[in-house]
Structure to design on (167 residues):
C-alpha cells in the first residue's frame, strides 16, 4: 500500500468536485513612504493644528471694551486653544483621511493611508485608533527616544500603513 501525498491547497476540491482556487495573495499596498516625507507631513499637520488651536484661543480671549479689542489670557483661553487643536487634529486625521485617504499634511507631501493587509480604504474605527496611537507616540515614545538617543523609527499602527500616492 502506498502512502498518499497531501493535496496542496490550490488543488483541493470543493464539495461540488471543482478545484478550489488558491487564496488570493494580497497586492502590495503601495510604495513605502520615506522618513523625510512622513516627517514633513506630520510637521504640516502639527502646525495646522497649532494654528487652529491658537485661533480658537484668541477667539475666546478677545474682549471688546469701549470699542477696543483686547486679548485677555485666562484659563478659558488655554482650554479653548487646546480644544481647538485637538478638534482640528481629529477632523484632519480621522474624518478627512476617511474621505480622502490622507490628512492635509499627507496630501501636501504626496502620501496616503491604506490598510496594510490589502491596500484598501481605511475605516473610521482604525483611523480613530491610529489617531489615539499618534497622541501616545508624540507624548510618550518621542520624548523617550530623544532622551535615550534612540534610532527607532515610527511604525505604522492599527493595521494601517502610510504609502506614497500613485503618480
Amino acid at each position: 500500500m502506498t502512502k498518499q501525498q497531501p493535496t496542496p491547497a490550490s488543488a483541493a476540491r470543493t464539495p461540488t468536485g471543482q478545484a478550489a482556487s488558491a487564496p488570493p495573495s494580497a497586492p502590495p499596498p503601495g510604495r513605502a513612504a520615506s522618513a523625510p516625507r512622513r516627517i514633513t507631513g506630520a510637521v504640516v499637520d502639527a502646525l495646522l493644528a497649532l494654528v487652529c488651536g491658537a485661533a480658537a484661543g484668541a477667539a475666546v480671549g478677545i474682549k471688546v471694551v469701549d470699542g477696543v479689542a483686547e486679548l485677555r489670557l485666562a484659563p478659558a483661553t488655554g482650554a479653548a486653544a487646546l480644544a481647538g487643536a485637538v478638534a482640528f487634529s481629529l477632523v484632519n486625521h480621522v474624518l478627512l483621511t476617511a474621505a480622502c485617504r490622507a490628512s492635509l499634511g499627507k496630501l501636501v507631501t504626496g502620501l496616503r493611508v491604506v490598510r496594510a493587509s490589502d491596500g484598501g480604504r481605511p475605516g473610521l474605527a482604525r483611523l480613530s485608533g491610529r489617531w489615539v496611537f499618534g497622541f501616545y507616540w508624540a507624548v510618550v515614545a518621542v520624548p523617550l527616544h530623544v532622551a535615550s538617543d534612540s534610532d527607532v523609527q515610527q511604525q505604522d499602527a492599527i493595521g494601517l500603513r502610510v504609502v506614497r500616492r500613485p503618480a
Summary: Confidence is low (pLDDT under 50) at residues 7-12, 19-28. The chain is about 50% helix and 10% strand.
